[in-house]
């Protein structure tokens, strides 16, 4: 199960001495001092060679920290050689060194730009001019507002279904892209982006198919139908607590965004770690969701540049948010391990596999990573979906009536205060509301990148070369007329009585697809159905005075997961308990 990045130690003085001793015995073919042009050309040539011989093929992002250190180390080494062996004055050595290193970089980047602009297999795909030369363009595009999903929609409106967003990157918004790139039969693999959190590993970031398959088996036990039934019993008290807390506002405005987070995090604490974080009843841990989002926001704009994150993770004072969040998770794993749990929880199943492991130290890293994954993957996604759902319910009160008409007879017949498992399929409108909110507002709005197989891939009649990073922009596709009729409108009936309004049944991918799809899908649906039924049964929902939901919809940020602004709602009790 071990799959960690190698960290290389650099002994700079030793490297300098070794290199210097070699240069000392070599007669340079020119005098650096009197023939600067030749020296510059040689450095530029080395840059071109390193591109053509090394950088042009394969993946190098994991070597990012090593390459950065080597590049920095070359400065003192070259300066030392020029000063000590070529016997240039100190200041001249330093100036020549900078010039040579810059010439090397110029050679490297010129070669890259010429190749990417004129000879790259993606050269025939349209996209912003600068995007073809570097992924930095994509980063720059989203730097100010962290609004990748909006930028992707704009680019697709301008350039069509296929947009070259980086030298080897395509965004494909054709509905056929979902089965081809994400479907069970797809031969695409996870892109280098998934290495962004190394050396931390987890199921989601596992790029090796076999490693992923093995770990997913451990996870499957925690998400079996029997486990889900047991989990639902523990969601119900949290839904009740949520309703009681909302009722205590007495009809005053509530920050729905924050409260759905408290619910979803508490549910993940309870079901993931065996103990709620108690955010619904106490203020103590309410900082955790903000910490997570801060961490995601810190590095969101760098996501198009996979080599940047391994470097940032190694710089002590940078990306403090994710590091603090990891510390919080580690603490939770240690506490859960110590206290044990009488009730089944997700970590319990993973701990049981770990107990049997022969490589306890290595597999403990997986345990940490997967606990973080469960908390991140299970909380914020569910919370933002619930907030979007209640935005639509406040905007369209008729939807609330339709929901009540559907579930009230089902609850009366079963005598339960939540939907019985056998009635879930009958709650077609409730399921339609959830799917419609997820279609219009996927919590991972810009999709997740894959790499095409070496032989390439054909989507909607267009051939995409092998080793291309492809992403399906989910929010753009979810609102596309090519996939849905009246695509911008909220019509839950399209998911049951009006199937003609779904033009491409494969286009819905808010939970992913294929072997890497969301393993928590059924659990999140259990949580959401449970809470929606309880809230809608007990409260009428309205926008708070001064709230129209526009800023909420307009100002959402895309940090891979979506960060939504506060949505102020009023919950008025229909029948006080
Ligand atoms: C509305 C709620 C949710 C949505 C929209 C959602 C969406 C997704 C998506 C799109 C993926 C695939 C990402 C990729 O391929 O890179 C994913 C993976 C995953 N999700 Fe969810 N998720 C939700 C709730 C949950 C919950 C409640 C859990 C529970 C712990 C969970 C756990 C996971 C895990 C463990 C993975 C990784 C699966 C793998 O790589 O095999 N998710 N989720």
TrEMBL record:
<feature type="transmembrane region" description="Helical">
    <location>
        <begin position="98"/>
        <end position="118"/>
    </location>
</feature>
<keyword id="KW-0472">Membrane</keyword>
<dbReference type="GO" id="GO:0020037">
    <property type="term" value="F:heme binding"/>
</dbReference>
<dbReference type="GO" id="GO:0016705">
    <property type="term" value="F:oxidoreductase activity, acting on paired donors, with incorporation or reduction of molecular oxygen"/>
</dbReference>
<dbReference type="InterPro" id="IPR002401">
    <property type="entry name" value="Cyt_P450_E_grp-I"/>
</dbReference>
<keyword id="KW-0479">Metal-binding</keyword>
<keyword id="KW-0503">Monooxygenase</keyword>
<dbReference type="InterPro" id="IPR050121">
    <property type="entry name" value="Cytochrome_P450_monoxygenase"/>
</dbReference>
<comment type="similarity">
    <text>Belongs to the cytochrome P450 family.</text>
</comment>
<dbReference type="Pfam" id="PF00067">
    <property type="entry name" value="p450"/>
</dbReference>
<keyword id="KW-0408">Iron</keyword>
<keyword id="KW-0349">Heme</keyword>
<feature type="transmembrane region" description="Helical">
    <location>
        <begin position="68"/>
        <end position="86"/>
    </location>
</feature>
<dbReference type="GO" id="GO:0005506">
    <property type="term" value="F:iron ion binding"/>
</dbReference>
<dbReference type="InterPro" id="IPR001128">
    <property type="entry name" value="Cyt_P450"/>
</dbReference>
<keyword id="KW-0560">Oxidoreductase</keyword>
<keyword id="KW-1133">Transmembrane helix</keyword>
<keyword id="KW-0812">Transmembrane</keyword>
<dbReference type="GO" id="GO:0016020">
    <property type="term" value="C:membrane"/>
</dbReference>
<protein>
    <recommendedName>
        <fullName>Cytochrome P450</fullName>
    </recommendedName>
</protein>
<feature type="binding site" description="axial binding residue">
    <location>
        <position position="518"/>
    </location>
    <ligand>
        <name>heme</name>
    </ligand>
</feature>
<dbReference type="GO" id="GO:1902181">
    <property type="term" value="P:verruculogen biosynthetic process"/>
</dbReference>
<dbReference type="InterPro" id="IPR036396">
    <property type="entry name" value="Cyt_P450_sf"/>
</dbReference>
<dbReference type="GO" id="GO:0004497">
    <property type="term" value="F:monooxygenase activity"/>
</dbReference>
């Amino acid at each position: 199960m071990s799959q960690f990045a190698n960290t290389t130690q650099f002994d700079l003085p030793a490297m300098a001495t070794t290199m210097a001793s070699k240069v000392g015995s070599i007669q340079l073919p020119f005098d650096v001092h009197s023939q600067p042009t030749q020296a510059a050309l040689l450095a530029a040539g080395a840059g071109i060679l390193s591109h053509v011989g090394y950088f042009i093929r394969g993946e190098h992002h994991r070597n990012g920290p090593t390459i950065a250190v080597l590049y920095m180390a070359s400065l003192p080494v070259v300066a030392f050689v020029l000063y000590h062996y070529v016997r240039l004055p100190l200041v001249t050595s330093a100036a020549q060194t900078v010039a040579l290193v810059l010439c090397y970089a110029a050679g490297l980047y010129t070669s890259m730009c010429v190749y990417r602009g004129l000879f790259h297999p993606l050269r025939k795909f349209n996209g912003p001019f600068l995007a073809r030369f570097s992924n930095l363009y994509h980063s720059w595009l989203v730097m100010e507002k962290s609004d990748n999903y909006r930028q992707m929609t704009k680019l697709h409106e301008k350039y069509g279904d296929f947009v070259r967003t980086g030298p080897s990157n395509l965004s494909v918004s054709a509905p056929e892209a979902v089965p081809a790139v994400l479907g069970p039969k797809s031969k695409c693999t996870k892109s280098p982006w998934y290495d962004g959190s190394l050396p931390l590993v987890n199921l989601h970031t596992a790029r090796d198919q076999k490693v992923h398959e093995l770990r997913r088996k451990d996870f499957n036990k925690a998400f079996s139908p029997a486990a889900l039934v047991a989990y639902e019993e523990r969601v119900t008290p949290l839904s009740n607590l949520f309703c009681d807390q909302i009722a205590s506002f007495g009809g005053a405005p509530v920050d729905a965004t924050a409260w759905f987070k408290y619910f979803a995090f508490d549910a993940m604490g309870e079901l993931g770690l065996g103990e709620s974080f108690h955010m619904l009843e106490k203020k103590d841990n309410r900082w955790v969701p903000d910490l997570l989002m801060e961490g995601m926001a810190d590095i969101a704009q760098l996501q198009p540049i996979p080599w940047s994150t391994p470097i940032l993770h190694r710089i002590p004072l940078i990306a403090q948010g994710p590091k603090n969040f990891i510390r919080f998770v580690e603490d939770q794993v240690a506490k859960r391990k110590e206290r044990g749990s009488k009730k089944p929880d997700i970590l319990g199943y993973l701990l049981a596999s770990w107990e049997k492991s022969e490589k306890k130290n290595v597999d403990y890293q997986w345990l940490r990573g997967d606990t973080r994954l469960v908390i991140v993957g299970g909380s914020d996604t569910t919370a933002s979906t619930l907030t979007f759902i209640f935005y639509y319910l406040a905007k369209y009160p008729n939807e609330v009536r339709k929901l009540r008409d559907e579930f009230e007879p089902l609850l009366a017949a079963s005598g339960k205060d939540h939907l019985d498992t056998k009635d879930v399929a009958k709650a077609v409108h409730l399921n339609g509301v959830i799917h419609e909110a997820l279609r219009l507002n996927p919590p991972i709005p810009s999709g997740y990148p894959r790499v095409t197989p070496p032989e390439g891939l054909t989507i909607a009649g267009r051939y995409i070369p092998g080793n291309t990073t492809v992403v399906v922009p989910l929010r753009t596709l979810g609102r596309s007329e090519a996939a849905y009729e009246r695509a911008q409108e909220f019509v839950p009936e399209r998911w049951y009585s009006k199937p003609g309004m779904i033009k491409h049944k494969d286009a819905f991918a808010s939970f992913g697809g294929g072997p890497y799809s969301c393993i928590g899908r059924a659990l999140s649906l259990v949580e959401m159905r449970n809470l929606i039924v309880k809230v809608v049964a007990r409260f009428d929902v309205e926008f708070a005075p001064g709230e129209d939901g526009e800023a909420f919809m307009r100002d959402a940020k895309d940090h891979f997961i979506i960060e939504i602004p506060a949505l102020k709602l009023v919950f008025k009790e229909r029948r006080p308990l």
